[in-house]
Structure formats: structure tokens, C-alpha cells
């Protein structure tokens, strides 16, 4: 399995979560063994010049924090893009580290249906309107090279248009949406056959006092005999043992009992966070 993340240029430079996940990328329990980041860099974000949006020349500079290789490629050259992507995949599979592909391109229309980019970027959009679209540019090259004929190209375009038109026509007759078709992994316990949520009531989760006492005693004991532990820690364990004996529970012991009862059922529990290893809370 290989993870691929698709980013916009403004989001890549501007969202803290990108920087944070780079810093998780090589941690022992969090790594994906290398993610391929594809940045669709239209050089404008929503409407802002890069010089007004970030301090560095490239949006991808945040990836330098983990020394990830960064490939800047002209998105008007499909063969160069394919080459760079295969190099990125090979890098990831060889070294199991993150890699970034920066597709340097442009956005032909506005950010959305209401946006007119000529308002804020008149010079840039005069240039963009003069650009030959990449599909036509590449098709002309292939036809000139004799790789495909004009007829083959036109048939391919017509075939794709037909797929879109037929799907659009079918969509008008759709009266019912099946939620389950949109779920990556339909959980049978949560949804019925039509994809609608089942009843949200919880099954009873209580356990016997005997089991709680057992977990409390284990949680306040030291697993190895004659093992010298820190005096501060032995005080905590003693207090926990007293609580269990007195049928009294604080927050930390309650959590112990919750985790312990799940473990007793053979269900794996993984905790993560700053203070998990030393069990501060």
C-alpha cells in the first residue's frame, strides 16, 4: 500500500497540519513508510500572489524540514510529469521516505463559479488566456510525431464526452441515493442494507465487580518480583491498591479498568500521546 496525498499550493504552505504530519512521517509508530505528496501548484492559491502568501519562493519548502526530495515539474509537459512521478514512486519504495511532486501549472478559470480572476489578477489572466491548453498542446505534438492520428485523437475525445453525457443523463433519473456506496468500508454493525444508520442505542458494557477488583489489583502491582521501583511510583501504586480495596475509583483507575476490561476480552488497545509511556494521568 502506498499513500498519496493531493494538495493545493496555498494549503501546502499555509496549513499547519501539513508541517505537523511531515514531522510525524518518520516516527516509529506513526510512519506510513513514505507518502507521495502531489502539489497542484496553480501559482495563485485562491486569488493571492505567492509573494503575499508565504515567505519562501516555493510552496513546497515546508517539506525541506524532513529533507524530502522535491521535484518541480512543468505540468504542461505530461511526459515529464509521468517521469517525475515514477522517480518519486521508486524513491518511496527504495528508501521509504516522503517525496514531493510540485506540478507547476495554472488555473484557467476562477476559483469557483462566482469568481472572476480578472478582478484581482488581470495581467496573469491575460497571459493564461493566451496559453494553448495542455490537452491540445500534447495532442498536436503526438499527431506531429505520427504517434497518433487526428482521427484517433478525435475518437478518444468523443468517447470520453459520451461517457460524461451518458452519466449526466442517468443522473436525472436517480431518485434515491445509496449512502453505503460512498463509504470506504460499510460497517455492518452501524448501517442497514440501505446504508441508513441502525439504532444508535448502546449495548450494555458493564462488567462484574470481581473483574473490576482483579483489574484494580493488577494495575497496582509490580509484575516482576524483587524489582526496585521509584519511591514516588510505589506510593501511587499503594494508593491505587487502597482505592480498589475501599471500592473507590478516581479518573486514572477508571481508565485502567476500562482498558483492562477490553484487554480481558482479547481486544488490542493502543494508546498514543505525550504522557502515555510514563502513564502520567
Question: What is the structure about, briefly put?
Answer:
It holds the Pfam family E1_dh. With 281 residues, this protein is an alpha/beta fold.
What's the SSE blueprint?
Elements lengths: L2 E6 H6 L1 H9 L10 E7 L8 H4 L16 E5 L3 H18 L3 E6 L17 H9 L3 H12 L4 H24 L35 H11 L11 H15 L5 H14 L17
Parallel strand pairs: 1-2, 2-4, 3-4
Pfam families: E1_dh
Organism: Tychaedon coryphoeus
GO molecular function, one term: thiamine pyrophosphate binding
What does this structure look like?
The protein is of the alpha/beta class and 281 residues long. The protein has three domains: 1-122, Thiamin diphosphate (ThDP)-binding fold, Pyr/PP domains (Rossmann fold), CATH 3.40.50; 131-164; 207-263, no CATH class. It is built from ten helices and four strands; from the N terminus they run βααβαβαβαααααα. It has helices spanning 9-14, 16-24, 50-53, 78-95, 122-130, 134-145, 150-173, 209-219, 231-245, 251-264; strands at residues 3-8, 35-41, 70-74, 99-104. It has a four-stranded parallel sheet. α8 (209-219) runs antiparallel to α9 and α8 (209-219) crosses α10. The longest helix is centred in the middle third of the chain and has 24 residues, at 150-173. The relative contact order is 0.07. The model has no long low-confidence stretch (mean pLDDT 90).
Amino acid at each position: 500500500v502506498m499513500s498519496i496525498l493531493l494538495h493545493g499550493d496555498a494549503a501546502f504552505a499555509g496549513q499547519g497540519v501539513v508541517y505537523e504530519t511531515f514531522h510525524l512521517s518518520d516516527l516509529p509508530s506513526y510512519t506510513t513508510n513514505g507518502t507521495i505528496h502531489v502539489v497542484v501548484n496553480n501559482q495563485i492559491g485562491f486569488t493571492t500572489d505567492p509573494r503575499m502568501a508565504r515567505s519562501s519562493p516555493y510552496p513546497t519548502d515546508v517539506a525541506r524540514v524532513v529533507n524530502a526530495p522535491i521535484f518541480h515539474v512543468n505540468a504542461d509537459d505530461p511526459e515529464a510529469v509521468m517521469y517525475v512521478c515514477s522517480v518519486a514512486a521508486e524513491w518511496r519504495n527504495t528508501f521509504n521516505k516522503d517525496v514531493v511532486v510540485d506540478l507547476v501549472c495554472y488555473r484557467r478559470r476562477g476559483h469557483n463559479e462566482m469568481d472572476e480572476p480578472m478582478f484581482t489578477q488581470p495581467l496573469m489572466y491575460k497571459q493564461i488566456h493566451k496559453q494553448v491548453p495542455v490537452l491540445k498542446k500534447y495532442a498536436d505534438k503526438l499527431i506531429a510525431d505520427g504517434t497518433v492520428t487526428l482521427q484517433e485523437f478525435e475518437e478518444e475525445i468523443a468517447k470520453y464526452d459520451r461517457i460524461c453525457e451518458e452519466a449526466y443523463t442517468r443522473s436525472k433519473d436517480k431518485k434515491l441515493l445509496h449512502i453505503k456506496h460512498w463509504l470506504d468500508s460499510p460497517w455492518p454493525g452501524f448501517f442497514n442494507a440501505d446504508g441508513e444508520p441502525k439504532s444508535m442505542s448502546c449495548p450494555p458494557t458493564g462488567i462484574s465487580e470481581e473483574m473490576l477488583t482483579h483489574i484494580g489489583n493488577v494495575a497496582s502491582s509490580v509484575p516482576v518480583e524483587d524489582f526496585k521501583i521509584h519511591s514516588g511510583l510505589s506510593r501511587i501504586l499503594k494508593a491505587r491498591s487502597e482505592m480498589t480495596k475501599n471500592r473507590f475509583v478516581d479518573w486514572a483507575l477508571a481508565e485502567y479498568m476500562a482498558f483492562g476490561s477490553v484487554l480481558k476480552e482479547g481486544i488490542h488497545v493502543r494508546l498514543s500521546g505525550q504522557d502515555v509511556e510514563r502513564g502520567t494521568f
